[in-house]
Structures are given as structure tokens and as C-alpha cells.
Amino acid sequence: MNLLAIAWKSIRQRRLASSLTALSIGLGVMLMVLVLVIFGAVNGAFNQRSVGYDLIVGPQRGSELQLVLSAVYRMQPPSENLPFMFYEDLKKDRRVVSAVPLAFGDSTQQGGFPIVGTTTEYFENEYMPGHKFRIRGNRINGLFDTIIGYEVARQNKWDVGSKFQIVHGGADSEALHEETFTVVAVLAQTGTANDRTVFLNIEGFYAIDGHEKPVEEVEERMKKFYAANPERLAEAMTQLEGVKSGQLAAAGTESPRVMKEVTAVLVRTRPAKEHPFDSMQMSSEFQKGYQAMAVNPIRPIQRLMQSLLGNIMKALVVLTGVIILVSGIGIFVSIYNSMSDRRREIGIMRALGAQRMHVFGIILAESSLLCIGGGVVGWLAGHGMAIGAAPWVIRQTGLLINPWSLNAWEAVLFPVLVGVAVLVGFLPAMTAYRTNVADALSS
Amino acid sequence: MSLLLEHVRKSYREPDGRRLPVLGIERFEMKQGEQVALLGSSGGGKTTLLNIISGILTPDAGRVIIDGKDIASMPEVVRDRFRATKIGIVFQTFNLLPAFTALENVLLGMSFSGKSVDRVFAKQLLEKVGLGHRLHHAPQKLSVGEQQRVAVARSLANKPVILLADEPTANVDPANQQLVLDLIRNTCRDHNVSLLMVTHSLEVASSFPRVDRLQEFNRPELCLQEQAV
Known about the structure:
Chain A is of the alpha+beta class. Chain A has helices at residues 3-13, 15-46, 64-71, 84-92, 121-124, 150-156, 202-207, 215-225, 230-245, 247-251, 278-289, 299-338, 343-351, 356-397, 408-433, 437-442; strands spanning 55-59, 82-83, 96-108, 114-118, 126-128, 131-132, 135-137, 145-148, 163-164, 166-167, 181-187, 198-201, 261-262, 264-269, 292-295.
């Protein structure tokens, strides 16, 4: 029988006290695991992996964070728009591999999901590196055909063929658009904001009644936007003259180019290995030449994560760490209190030939078994709870939770528990070490 | 020679600082396989003597030779290992550990010897003392007589050269006293283990071929005389 087996026997003898102390450690570990899993999901949703683009281009008004939150995560309303001509220029830029326009601002009447007008290129690109969209249904043909995200379909109980209406602006708006939209396809779950989005052909977005801006407003905006680019401004003004005289409007069903706007453009530049400065170059060019900004989608989110969420996570981890420490003190009290009852046991073991280090080791093994056993139970319970809660969290927040994802903090959890075990077991172990055998046997 | 005590002295320090002499033994010896009953009154130093022979206590002076080695001069760690391998102890109150079954109590005796645990031999020992059917019973589920039999099996687990028994029948009912006594003596004889049993009962001692009275060869006053010198 080794020391661990002897320690285990002793723990079993004091089942209730041992279970309760191990449980308290387990609860602390469970809380820590839950905090880590939830923050892992939040982190995963907002980190580089969830963005398949190098730059988000949007109007200069508003902050970088606001642009990323609205264009990628659809959590913020758009601040202003960019001229469609600007998107066309961007698309022609030799550094740009793919430029996808986004036009948004409306939402579904049912559920308040954001409506995003875009092109088919959006679905041809990977939504995150190595992940392509999986679409069930048909291609978009009509102006008001839509592709809906997984959560939109699930929550609104919509499927291919469902019809719905949208409201202008946010979900609380009462300005109902007259057009009726049809679901032609449903996206498979992605764990990103796409799950909670309704996609529309960008031409359909422009065709919605009320989306067209007054010519004077567009003229004003063009003058501001292309103030540093007289050539493009002149082209825009010529087109606006055409709109004013009615010539362009009559040329086709599509809206005239100059009258179209996009809310943001998702840009993928040439491979960074060969062209490492493309993104940086474009960012600085926009700052000088236009009233637009090109933002790396990762940095503002990273800043947010580090400055706010990261600190909250650290605070919660420290808090759960304190809970574990307090539970450790509980184990110390439990073992230490049992030492007077076990004095004779220790005396008997010493009389049978156990060395001082043997009884010292048995007590340390006992505290280690309680700490690590409680920790394993808590770790499994934490991940078990995450498995149980994952569907609910996904339903409520759209965060794709991976209950078994391991956080770096978890790697240090068990070494820390061993440290706590040694710390709380040391004093009782020393008591056992110092036990006077003859006195203990005669007691 | 199984056991030899020479010039052994032991005294305790009292709370007021004075020394209380307990043992002053010039010579005491036992041959291999010999069975000796040591008669002594309560407080006469019997348990102290057994603790010194087993290495639980060290004498103030003198030599305690067991199997040719002086246990009194060994460092504590060596002495503990020596005790585990060469000395078996049967206590008055059996001292079985309640968290362990009968078999585990015997195995526990083997665990500290540094040798691998021999489950087969442990079972054989328990079968020999008539507990083959009670291997997995906790001590509290066993009768007093059965508990003492487990204690006897445990004391022989490491095939010791000497077995020290401290009033092993004191807590056993009269009907079972002789049974326990016969068990200890027969088992020691079968394994060629020397037996030193301390008792205050003349009746128990009378069945032994050799009976020594502690007060006849223990002269605690020697401690004081030597201190004075």
C-alpha cells in the first residue's frame, strides 16, 4: 500500500468532512472554468479568427471601434455612408484582392435582426480564415430575395420561402417599409454575427422605398468627401447634373451610381507575406486624401478586450482564485482539527515502522487528494455546465461556446492547486512529523 | 542470540526538572526462538522497556542488540526501517486502524518495510489465525478476539526476528485469553520468532517456559548512581 492509498483510506474514513472540503474547492474551480469558458467565447467571437478581412473601410465620422462593431459585429448603428464611387475605386486598387460593399441600417420587423445589403462576393469569401459559408437554398435572383443567418431562421422560425417585412432603422423603429422580402436561402451556423443577420442584394437595398437621398444632400456630401480630389469631384458633379436633368434615372432600373452609397467596405489586401505594407499604406492614404478611414478590424477590438473585458476577466479569475484559497483554508482547518483524533493512528503507523517522512507524506497526500480531486470534479462540473448552458447562451447572445475549449489559465490551475495543497497540508503534516510515538501510543 | 540488552539506562525528566529513573538493566538476553514472559507491576517500566527494545524510545545509555545490530545507536530513519522489518509488536489495545480492513491492516504492516507488499502472504497469515473468511471486514465489525488475531497476523507480516507483546490478553475476555495466548505462541514457534511478552498476570506468565520478573533485574537506581558519579 503506498502513501496515496493510505491517505485515500483516511479521507474515506471522514467522508462527510472530506467531501464538503473537496466540494468547496470544486465550486471555486467550477466558477473559474465557467468564467474562462464564457470569456473564451467572447474572446473567440471578437478576435482575429472571426474576421476574414484585413481592413474595414468606413466614413471618418465616428470611432474605429464603432466602425468595426457596426460593420463586422453589427452591434452599433452606422454613423454615415461612403459614396459608391469610392467603393468602385477601391475595387480597382491593385493592392485590393477583394472589396465587398455593405449597406445597412434597417432591421427585420420580427426579432430586430439587422438587414445588410451586399454582393455575392460576400458569400464567396471565407467568413474567417479556413471557413467558407455553407448555404442551404437557392441563389438570389429577385431584388427582395434574402439569405438569412442561422439564428434568424431559428428564432423567427423562418425557412426558404418565408416572407417578411423590415423596418427603417433599429428594431424599435415603427417606420415599416412596404416591400415584402422572401427567404431564398439559410446559412449554416458560423458562430459569428452572420448568424444574426439578414442579407439582401445590395441593389435591392437601394431599391427600398425611402432609401434614396435628395440630390442636394448627395451633392453636399460629394463636395465634402472629394474636396481633396477635384477630378473625382468633377465626375460626381457631372453625374449629379444628369440625375437632376432626369437623363440618368431614365437610363435603367438600377439607381444612378452617384446616388448610391455604402455604409462600409470589407477589404482583403494582397497576401501579407509578399506585401506586408498594403494595409498600413492604404490606412494612411485614406487619412490624408478622403473623409474615410480604413481600420484594421482586430486592433480596436483588441484594445477593447484588453482595456475592459480583459480586466473584468482578470478580476473574476482573481475572485475565483480567492474562493479556491478560502476553500484551501477550509481543508487546512479540517485536516488540522482531525490531527488530535489521529494522533494515535500516527503513533501506530510509526510503531509499525513508518518514518517521520512517511506520515508527513500521508498528510500532504491527503490535502493533495482533496485539492486536486475537488479541482478535477470542479473542472468537469464547470465544463459540464458549459455544455448544458451552451445552447441557451448561443440562443441569447449568438456567442458560439465551445465547452471544452481550454484556456491558458486552466493549464496553471492544477499546478496552483498542488501549491495550495502543499500550503494547507504543511502545518498538519509537520504536526504528524513531530508526533511523539510513545506518547501517542499511550494516549 | 535474538536479543541482548547491556547496561541499559532510561530516565524521564519530570516537570520540575528532576530525573525519574525507570530502567537500569545490566544484562538481559533471549535466544532465537525463545519465548519469555516478563512479569512486572503497573508503572514498573514494562512498556518503557518494550519501547526501547522496539526503538520507539532510545535509552540514555547502553546497547540493545537485536539480530546482531545495536538498535540504540542507529539513526532514527534506520531504526524505523529496522523496526518495520525485524520487530513485530502486539499491543494491549490491538491498535488496528479503523479505516482499513483486516487484510489492509496486515498489508499496512508491510508497507513501511521497504519491501514489496505480499498480499498472498498477508492472506495466508490471516487464514492461519482463522480469519480467512473475514479478510475484508473493518476492525469494528470484528469481535475483540478476532481483532487481536488480526493484530497478531500484522505483527508477523514482515517475518520479524522478535515479537514484542504488551499485555496482549488484557482486553480479551477470560474465555478467549488462552486462545489468544496459544495463537501468539504457536505462530511464533511456527515462524521461529522469539517472543517477549510483558504481563502483570502470573496466570498468563505461568504457561511460558521462561518467566522473568522485571523488578529482579531492573535497578533504576543505577541511573541516579551513575549521574552522581
